[in-house]
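Exam revision sheet. Question 4 asks you to relate a sequence to its structure. Input first:
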Amino acid sequence: MKQRLVVCAALLAANVTYADQGNVAEIVVEPNQAIVQVNGIVCSFCAYGAEKNLAKLSFLDDSQFGDDGVLIDIQSHRITLAFQPDQEFDLTQVYDAIQKGGYDPVAFYVNVYGQVRKDGDRYLLTSSDSGQVFEIVGAAAGQLVDRGFINVQGHVDVGPVKTFKVGQPIAVVLASDASS
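Answer key, structure tokens:
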């Protein structure tokens, strides 16, 4: 156990140096996947607890990423999750599984496919595969209405994830609006 902690500490120091150099990998999210930016994942030994907890989630596609639907990249401190296309995913469960593994999620990135419609003052995208509903947020959201089936990429703020309720639309900030 001591040896494992020493290895993790050494890798943490190496990765902090790497991060300080400004080396940030571009985030590209494939359909039916999400990427979670996580604080503190620095070695595969340390990440095992988070992967084990995430692999238990029923909506993950266990035919991908080593038969558990979870891919951890310790260089970028990101976890990629593959979702079963015909099932809704629960970001609250993802958040809880990562925290139970000893880490803090800082951002979720998603790629969702469906049609955007206006509902009052909100823009909602319903996934064509799972039926899950997402609220599209950003200056360009209105431009997505009536464009047929489209892929929408963006990020989900971590704060509200802790309080999501089943069936509640997940607010996705468009990637094109991330800098505004």
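Marking note for examiners. The chain has one domain: 2-177.
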